[in-house]
Amino acid sequence: MGPARQAAMLSKKEKELIADIWESLTPVAEDIGADALLRMFASYPGTKTYFSHLDISPRSAHLLSHGKKIVLAIAEGAQDIGQLTVTLAPLQTLHAYQLRIDPTNFKLFSHCMLVALACHMGEDFTPVAHAAMDKYLSAFAAVLSEKYR
Amino acid sequence: MVEWTECERATIKDIFAKLDYDSVGPAALSRCLIVYPWTQRYFSKFGNLYNAAAIMGNPNVAKHGKIILHDLERGVKNMDNLKETYADLSVLHSETLHVDPDNFKLISDCLTIVVASRMGKAFTGEVQAAFQKFLAAVVSALGRQYH
């Protein structure tokens, strides 16, 4: 299923919910991002192979800055989900031609991001919010890998 | 057979010791039915699953969620013998219930997220890794008797 269609699977209410959640998380972008990355490295050690050039120990400057970058990109996409392909165009190119991260890893990261959100938001990470967020992150990952081949 | 470090054993036992089974079980199953609605295909006899509110209020879902969590506890008590512990359940899910074993992963992920939301910061990356390793081992045992 193409990413545009995936994004279209989100209802208006879900898009608003997602936009609200990410807007509220922008002030703690580096904490959430670093947390999600650390969780991924702990549960899926193979993912560390993409970071051999960085210091990814807890609270390291690299980890915080990288976590922040990722969350801010996700948050930016959330403000206008219908335009994901446009918003993410530069990142698509980066991932396809330079980073070439195997897309299976996007699923692993998305799962860890959901766990990070659950830890951070507690009961507020309701099943409805979880469903919407899972759909959004899937669409985001699909757009990111669109230029791979 | 899965190898467990002392730290992993302690972490997993600790998580389950502190869990409110009767709340977490229903929360995990209802979350699975909401986030992955196609899983509802196995629960057509459960009554109203029409929307999130109906699912979360459905007493059959709640009852089944509790059963699932109590069954997981058996695994915690038999971490070195999961294949035998779950052999009967595996046969049941394969031959009677006809459940696609991919679904076990979906409910595992939902359970992880429910536990994460209850434990908050205490659910660190290391704790998550141990918990997920346990659930993956149970999922594997549950899939063992499929043929």
UniProtKB/TrEMBL annotation, chain B:
Limits of the Globin domain: 3-147
Molecular function as annotated in GO: haptoglobin binding; heme binding; metal ion binding; organic acid binding; oxygen binding; oxygen carrier activity; peroxidase activity
CDD domains for the chain: Hb-beta-like
Key words, A-Z: Heme, Iron, Metal-binding, Oxygen transport, Transport
PANTHER family recorded: HEMOGLOBIN FAMILY MEMBER, HEMOGLOBIN SUBUNIT EPSILON
Protein name: Globin domain-containing protein
Domain of life: Eukaryota
One biological process term in Gene Ontology: hydrogen peroxide catabolic process
Organismal lineage: Eukaryota, Metazoa, Chordata, Craniata, Vertebrata
GO-annotated cellular components: blood microparticle; haptoglobin-hemoglobin complex; hemoglobin complex
Family named by the database record: Belongs to the globin family.
Pfam family, one: Globin
